Amino acid sequence: MSLIGRANTALNINTVTGVDEALSVHGSDWLWAVTAIYVLSFIVLLVLSFAAKESERVFHYLFSFALLVGAITYYAQASDLGWSAVKQTDHLGNGVVRQMFYARYINWVVSFPSLVLGLGLISGVSWTTIFCNIAIAWYWVISYLVSAYTTTAYRWGFFAFGTFSWLILAMSTINESREAAALLGIERDYLFLAGLNIAFSDSRPSRESGDVSKEAPPATTDVSMAS
Hints:
With 227 residues, the chain is mainly alpha-helical. It is 65% helix and 4% strand. A two-stranded antiparallel ribbon has the order 1-2.
């Protein structure tokens, strides 16, 4: 049978019960496409690592691992796995219980510290700063994870702690690490990479964690936010 004409049957095989708002077929299709991008990117970066200079291979290994973790977490989401039911306490127009993919937090707890480590190595900042920033990145993502699972208004406390830690990480990235990069003469290039990292990081965990507190979209569009 041709794979091109095969329908997406993941939602029929891995059925969802006990939730009012769940992944749609179109959402699953999108997540399969993202999975393919991650796998392709991993393969390309892995191949390039064999031709890279010895001093540059650490970046290839670091981001290859992050891409591999991202690939399997998106595979889980596309397959309608790696989730749990979370009760909503307000904005119940689309139901009381929603499907929350914890798989994406597994991705974030690996990918964002990997980016922090990569930026730290590029800037030449001290290892103490790098380790502190990695710890803050973990604190930030885990705080948002707890916020997403909290079903009362106390979720905002975890969200606030996570957001505050993200601000600390962002300030360290564009201040202390930038100063170290300037000493190496790569300040402009570093700021470009750091800016992309901050913009990307701000759009992911905060959006999912805050989604338990705001009105949920219809089920047919729910997982447009899962990427």
